[in-house]
Amino acid sequence: MQGFCLTEHLAPGTALGPVGEVRLVPDLNTFALLPYAPGEARLLCDMLRLDWTPWENCPRSFLKRASAQAASAGITAQAGFEYEFYLAREVDGRFVPADDSLCFSSDGMDRAGAVIGDILDALDRQGLTPRQYYPELGPAQQELSNHHAPLPAAADHQIAVRETIRGVALRHGLVASFAPKPFPDQAGSGCHVHLSLWRNGRNLLYDPDGAASLSVLGRHFVAGILTHLPALLAITCPSVNSYRRLAPNRWSSAYTCWGPDNREAAVRVASPFRGREESTANIEIKAVDGSANPYLALGALLVAGLDGIQRALDPGEPLTVNPDDLDEDERRRRNIRRYPTTLGEAVAELERDNVLLDAIGPALAREFVAVRRAEWNDLGNVLVEEEIAAHFRRY
Questions:
Q1: pLDDT value at position 366?
Q2: Do 158 and 253 lie in a common domain?
Q3: What is the spatial distance between Cα 92 and Cα 147, in angstroms, rounded to a whole number?
Q4: By the number of CB atoms within 10 A of the CB, which of 211, 221, 326, 358 ranks highest?
Q5: Distance CA 314, CA 294 (A)
Q6: Looking at the domain assignment, is residue 44 inside a domain?
């Protein structure tokens, strides 16, 4: 299945076929009873070979390797996700938003209150610790965030939160879609990553005297992400539908830049909470969406940032304006690049990024690229309605 496409066929060029076997081995630490499905439980698994070694195509094992690389440098990375999704219902064979509420409105909270209340309760009962909820920009679009955790657990939580939201919505007769652009004329949905780095209980990103209160090590880490971002997009925004969301002036980011509380920047240095500055300092990576495999996305982001630390890369000065308002000469002077505008372009960037490919490993990289190229070939030039229909329920 690692060579299987969204469009329901094996990717041309896959090395996976009818011969061979692996084992799905449950991680008992992920066991949870499902409040929205009485009598059922969830376990997340590692993919192991028959000799009980990690299968080279296992995304969860890749994230563990990346985390171990950070640990060898004395760094523990933690992350939390912001989940944006639409609640929808099916009317006359097509999906429409579940309501027409306004952005951040109490009316939106009231109309989604029953289903959101059950979602928050179900998350609490699984120990997933929701932190914040509100209605987002689009009609019936929601945003929910959960507590941060070390990266492997954070990726596990991303899966569990997503499946909980879907399951509870179904019990209310609704569909929850995490597709990046489920309605062509409405706001897109991201799954932003908030990330911090720790050593011996201290936040390595925080320096009250640094620009935007970011440490020198933090600057190197950000620079690594920006350097690899054109290729990272193939992993963090890996669907054809993703690139309808990544456009200027949509607060989803479209340029390789960073800045304090700059919501048009690829990396936003989030303002910390008063009195808890060090413990709450973090960076937000905005070019991540619900079509991403969280194990691959977090692992690739960590690898890119660690490369920036190892090479002492400089991200340049923080940007405090909308990058789209700069002229092309100024963006070029600041080394600010426009993102790839299609999945095909992003996959081509990934194929040229040896740091990411080497970290992912040849087998997993081959399957990932083959699948995404096949999906681009299948959906890259279809009508927008067909593209959206292909993604709406899958994500």
A1: 97
A2: no
A3: 39
A4: 221
A5: 27
A6: no
Residue 88 three-state SS: strand
Residue 150: predicted pLDDT = 96
137: domain CATH number is: 3.30.590.10
Same domain, 229 and 295: yes
Instruction: Determine, yes or no, domain membership for 66.
Output: no
What per-residue confidence (pLDDT) applies to 17?
Answer: 86
Residue 115's domain comprises 75-177
In a shared domain, residues 218 and 282: yes
Q: What pLDDT sits at residue 311? A: 98
Which residues in the chain show pLDDT less than 50?
none
Please check whether residue 255 is in contact with residue 331, taking contact to mean a CB–CB distance below 8 angstroms. Answer: yes
How many other C-beta atoms lie within 10 A of the C-beta of residue 295? 24
Strands 76-91 and 141-146: antiparallel
pLDDT at 1: 84
Question: How many whole angstroms separate alpha carbon 93 and alpha carbon 121?
Answer: 31
Quote the CA–CA distance of 66 and 332 in Å, as a whole number: 32
Which residues make Cβ contacts (< 8 Å) with residue 237, sequence separation at least 6? 180, 243, 245, 246, 287, 288, 289, 291, 292, 343, 346
How many domains does the chain divide into?
2
In this structure, the answer to whether residues 162 and 269 fall within a common structural domain is no
How many Å apart are CA 356 and CA 186, to the nearest integer? 33
Residue 287: inside a domain? yes
41 domain-assigned = no
- Predicted local confidence at residue 93, as pLDDT: 86
Q: Are 217 and 339 contained in the same domain?
A: yes
pTM for the predicted model, two decimal places:
0.96
Tens of pLDDT, residues 337-352: 999 999 999 999 999 9
Same domain, 220 and 312: yes
| Closest by Cα among 164, 191, 174, 168 to 96 | 174
Concatenating the DSSP letter of every residue in 133-163 gives EEE-SSTTEEEEEE--EEHHHHHHHHHHHHH
pLDDT score for 381 = 95
